[in-house]
Amino acid sequence: MVQYIIKRILWLFPILLGVSFIVFTIMYLSPGDPARIILGEGATEETLQALRADMGLDRNFFVQFFNYVRDVFINFDLGRSYVSRRPVMGEILIRLPNTVRLASWSVLFSTLVGVPLGVVSATRPYSKTDNFVMTISLLGVSMPVFWQALLLIILFTAILGLLPATGFTTWQHMIMPVFALASSSIGTVARITRSSMMDVLDQDYIRTSRAKGVSEKKIIFQHALRNALIPIVTVIGLQFGVLLGGAVLTETIFSINGLGTLMVNAIRTRDTMIVQGGVLFIAFLFTIVNLFVDILYAYIDPRIRSQYD
Questions:
Q1: pLDDT band at 154 (very low <50, low <70, confident <90, very high)
Q2: Which of 28, 59, 176, 274 has the CB geometry, 3.0–4.6 Å to 152, for a possible disulfide?
Q3: Does residue 282 have a pLDDT over 60?
Q4: What is the DSSP track for the chain?
C-alpha cells in the first residue's frame, strides 16, 4: 500500500507538467501584451521593450515555458501577478478558503441528498418514485449552474427578499451558492448510486439473505450499500474536482471572493501568472483528492486491501 501511494504521488509531477504546458500554451497564444497591461496604454515602445526583456517575454515559447517550469517545480514559485505585482501563491491562498468551503459544502450536500435518492430509486426500480427521482436528477444535471444561480437570485432575493445575493460570510449567504453548485452533482450521485445498488441487489448473496429472513433494512444498508460504495465514492471524489472548477462561475455570480473570481478577473486583464497558477493549484488539489479516494477504497472493500498485503 505504501508503494502504491508513493507511485501515485510521483505521478503528480507528469500530470501537473502536462497541465502547465496546456495552460501556458493557451495563455501564450492569447491576444494581449502583459507589458502593456502593467505599464498602461501611455507607455512608450522603448519602455515596453525594456520591461518585456526584464520579464523574459522577448524570448521564444520554449525558453519561457522552461523558465516557468523551473520556477514552479524547483523553486516552488508561481511568479508574481502582472497587475497587483504580488506573489501568485499569496493571492491564491488568500482566496482559497472560500473556494474550498463552497466546494466542500456542495459535495457534502450532494452526497447527503444524492445517495439516499439513489438508494430509494434502486429499491423501487421502474416505479413512480424511481421515475420521479430520475427525472429530478436529469433536470439537475441538464441545467447550467449559472442559469440556476440567476433563477435563485431572482426568486429568493428579488421577489421574496429572503436571502442575500452576494457574499459568503454567514449561512444565509451560503444557501444559494451551495445549492446552485451542488444541484448537478446531486443528479450524478443519485444516478450512480441507483445503478450500483441495482447491480448489488441482483447478486446471489442478497437473495440468500432474503431467503434467510434478514430484514430488508439490514440487507440494504449493511450488505448492499457497503458493497456498492466503490463507484459512489469514485464519483463523489471526482465531483469535488468538478465543483472546484464550477465554482468559477458560481463565485462570479454571487460575488464571492474566492479563487474562481480571482481567475475570472485575471482572464479579463490577461494576468497570465494568476491564471496559470490558479489552474495548476486546482489540478493539484484534484489529484490529491483522487489519491485520497484511492486510499479510501482499501478501507471500504477488503478485497482491494488484500491486494496490497
A1: very high
A2: 176
A3: yes
A4: -HHHHHHHHHTHHHHHHHHHHHHHHHHHHSS--HHHHHH-TT--HHHHHHHHHHHTTTS-HHHHHHHHHHHHHTS----B-TTT-SBHHHHHHHHHHHHHHHHHHHHHHHHHHHHHHHHHHHHSTTSHHHHHHHHHHHHHHHS-HHHHHHHHIIIIIIIS--S-SS--SSHHHHHHHHHHHHHHHHHHHHHHHHHHHHHHHTSHHHHHHHHTT--HHHIIIIIIHHHTHHHHHHHHHHHHHHHHHHHHHHHHHTT--SHHHHHHHHHHTT-HHHHHHHHHHHHHHHHHHHHHHHHHHHHH-HHHHHTT-
Q: What is the pLDDT of residues 202-246, one digit of tens each?
A: 888 888 888 888 888 888 887 788 788 888 888 888 888 778 776
Q: What's the grid cell of residue 121? A: 430509486
Which three three-digit cell numbers place residue 162? 429572503
